[in-house]
Amino acid sequence: MFDYRALEALTAVIEQGGFERAAKRLNISQSAVSQRIRQLEFRLGQPVLLRISPPRLTEIGQRLTNHLQQVQQLEQSLLTEEHPEQDVTVRLAVNADSIDTWLAPALAQCPVSQRMNFELVIEDQRIGLQRMKNGEVMACICESAQPVNGGLSQKLGVVRYLALASPDFIHNYAAGDRGHHWLQQAPCLVYSGDDQLQHQFLALLQLDAPGRFQRVPSSSGFVQMARAGLGFGMMPEIQVREFLADGSLVNVAPQHWIDVPHYWHYWQTESDYMVQLRQAVVKHAAECLL
Amino acid sequence: MFDYRALEALTAVIEQGGFERAAKRLNISQSAVSQRIRQLEFRLGQPVLLRISPPRLTEIGQRLTNHLQQVQQLEQSLLTEEHPEQDVTVRLAVNADSIDTWLAPALAQCPVSQRMNFELVIEDQRIGLQRMKNGEVMACICESAQPVNGGLSQKLGVVRYLALASPDFIHNYAAGDRGHHWLQQAPCLVYSGDDQLQHQFLALLQLDAPGRFQRVPSSSGFVQMARAGLGFGMMPEIQVREFLADGSLVNVAPQHWIDVPHYWHYWQTESDYMVQLRQAVVKHAAECLL
């Protein structure tokens, strides 16, 4: 058998982004974390992680943490059958737009949500799947349909992203340009360095990458910055209906949008609780998304 | 004179949380980053950062990055005088609640905001000041009045945090308890590991730390989770007025709240543009905050 304490230490180092914080999380010394991982590497005859900042898993390391997550799901099924009154921690990687719009009621509709302590990790929908591959999370919402090793995926629906800005912003920057070339020079809102939606949109209009950026790592802050006239950007239709209605946001290119599919990724060894959660999320998503 | 390229490399390593990403940001090789920093340390005869994950500044390292930020502000004054048409990047550390509520219109009201590319870094209001101390940002909003070395602070106002939950949540967990003891067992929303507001609130009611957590690193997601009945937590009054009015959120202890002061921290070497930004933020905050 593997030394599961070593696998836990490995997962904690990746989750927490370092040995020191992993030790704090596991309530053991930093040298204990290092030692467990070194012993694991000695047994396998190869490194399980790259000691850079933040540490990164090697291929074998990724297979191990992925395996641990599946084992933990099996344990959870066993424990919740034995102790149905016990709380379980549910760690999910989700995109910021989902948690700010449709996801919370979906989680609440799971019949066992009162037993769940949610730990949400916010990632761009393009990269959340990496957390799943690493076995860091129990499920994830992302735009890729391709399941990870040991996992499956189920379609939730499509979120339509519109390119929006305030009327004043358009007046200032478009300055009579009836095409879309002005968008290349106007300040463009981006959520983070991983957020490529705005670039994709300009490419769709056969324009170059945006020239000026406003970086706002908050989904709701992103919308506030657009309403305040500080930039244009891609926003989920479901998040901005009221602002389109009251005219504080306007579509800068009404003939164009980007549809982003959303998938729920889960483990084949999914626990009973996680089955119920998936079903609740799928059902609610079917009502909210396209 | 210092080697300012080395100081830039040092700041980038701290900002980006590692040598590899710093190299990418500066568009140089990782070995060039390491070499510049090593030469700086050789000259000073002591380390400027701890090579842990993520890297951390030593005391002398902190003084150097802090110094660099002040020099950059001076440069900016010079450049914007010479080239008033040039854009400037304005890197700010702000708390999530501010950007999701009152801050965006304040930034927009700055007369030179059209020339500014904002780069927002979101930090808990208790720890944003560390970014300022490190010289990583040009200004910061936080709850401390104490200026950093080389900096000054100005009061913006007070944000009142109320302890709120959905009516269903209170019905399920309070179950007739007319006091507040039920809050210790009920799931408690927290924004991040640095978010101590809920702990402070329970201490105010002479209760122990919360027993169950829901971790939601999104200000607006936090409110959505509360409205969906998944937890109670402290929310800014200015963010939830409409939900208090429509009854989807209810005060769990109406006689108690936490007032969090907000301060704008800036550098003594503040550029002209940053003076105008500060004045716009102070003016708008006076209208929105208590």
Automatic annotation (TrEMBL), chains A, B:
Q: Which Gene3D superfamilies match?
A: 3.40.190.290, Winged helix-like DNA-binding domain superfamily/Winged helix DNA-binding domain
Residues of the HTH lysR-type domain:
2-58
Taxonomically, the superkingdom here is Bacteria
Q: Does the keyword DNA-binding apply?
A: yes
Q: PROSITE patterns, from UniProt? A: HTH_LYSR
What the entry lists under SUPFAM superfamilies is as follows: Periplasmic binding protein-like II, Winged helix' DNA-binding domain
Keyword Ligase annotated: no
Q: Which UniProt keywords are present, listed alphabetically? A: DNA-binding, Transcription, Transcription regulation
| UniProt-listed Pfam families | HTH_1, LysR_substrate
Which protein family is it in? Belongs to the LysR transcriptional regulatory family.
- PANTHER family, alphabetically? HTH-TYPE TRANSCRIPTIONAL REGULATOR ARGP, TRANSCRIPTIONAL REGULATOR
Name of the protein in its database record: LysR family transcriptional regulator ArgP
Which species? Bacterioplanoides pacificum
Lineage here is: Bacteria, Pseudomonadati, Pseudomonadota, Gammaproteobacteria, Oceanospirillales
